[in-house]
Design a protein that fits this description.
By secondary structure, the chain is mainly alpha-helical. It has one domain. It contains five helices and no strands. Helix 1 packs antiparallel against helix 3. The longest helix is centred in the middle third of the chain and has 20 residues. The relative contact order is 0.15. Keywords: Membrane, Transmembrane, Transmembrane helix. This is DUF3307 domain-containing protein.
């Protein structure tokens, strides 16, 4: 993968992140995913899991890699849970999500995904 293709892939991943983290998350998931301030009757892990799966699906579709989609689900779940726990702030949360996208591009560009 050349530098232009890698940069284009990174740009698509960041754009998909913005789409999944804002309009596709919505008010319900944004509130329900917080186990420290749960929505009564809604299992927080289902809401956070659904939100993370939306992100993983975006990464998997864009990269064509099931492995990277699964890694995104796991990373997004942990990062957002840390934000909900107030261990990290909003800007750190977003920076970590974008850093993950950079890691996914490097893994693809270097062939370390093993064709998954």
């Amino acid at each position: 993968m050349d530098h232009y293709a890698a940069l284009g892939l990174f740009a698509l991943l960041v754009a998909a992140h913005a789409l999944a983290d804002y309009p596709l998350q919505g008010e319900f998931l944004a509130r329900a995913k917080n186990r420290f301030n749960p929505v009564p009757g809604v299992p927080w892990y289902q809401a956070l899991g659904a939100h993370a799966v939306i992100h993983g699906g975006m990464v998997g579709l864009i990269t064509g890699s099931l492995l990277l989609g699964v890694l995104e689900v796991l990373a997004h779940f942990v990062i957002d849970d840390c934000k909900c726990a107030r261990r990290i702030g909003f800007n750190t949360d977003q920076a970590l999500h974008v850093a993950c996208k950079a890691v996914w591009v490097v893994l693809l560009a270097t062939g370390l995904t093993g064709g998954w």
